[in-house]
């Protein structure tokens, strides 16, 4: 279980996140929703030690991991697939996947993730920079998966993708929690996010302004309506 307790994070002056608390349960699929600049990326970076925390704690199974080294946290199972994919563009698909095994954790094999993303199986010798945006996003998620994450955080996975590709990719996210893995999707595509998430948090003004389930069509409509209402107020 991943717990965020009274987290305050900022870069220079005003904090981006203020006294933020949330619990991510094992096996859950969670959407953190909000517009550009609301703090979604800041939250994920704070969890994996990429930016300093001013106050509060990040706990994994009750152990304080606040401000830990990113590589160490990855080896403990906190893995992020960052916005913009951040692939090794000069390396092939296979070489990028092998790089994802640096954590040394038990997890899906390269063959396993190629079964999840059969398109990549056809591109093993392609350099990452030569692939389409959708293929690159698949590779970014696959590379994170072979690291054996307990908590997989996906930062704006729909960014720049065609609607059909977004739909296919999010279908994969729905299945990734089946073995107890926690999936956190930081997104502004509220339609797709609510379709696959079980719980949604709407982040504006540095804090969660709404938290609710996304299990039924009525739940999803409530989240989507609340999201639109909150954006109109900001």
UniProtKB/TrEMBL annotation:
Keyword Nucleotide-binding carried by entry: yes
GO molecular function terms attached to this record: ATP binding
Domain of life of the native organism: Bacteria
Keyword terms of this UniProt record: Amino-acid transport, ATP-binding, Nucleotide-binding, Transport
PROSITE patterns in the record: ABC_TRANSPORTER_1, ABC_TRANSPORTER_2
Domain ABC transporter: 2-230
Family from the record: Belongs to the ABC transporter superfamily.
Name assigned to this protein: ABC transporter ATP-binding protein
Lineage: Bacteria, Bacillati, Actinomycetota, Actinomycetes, Micromonosporales
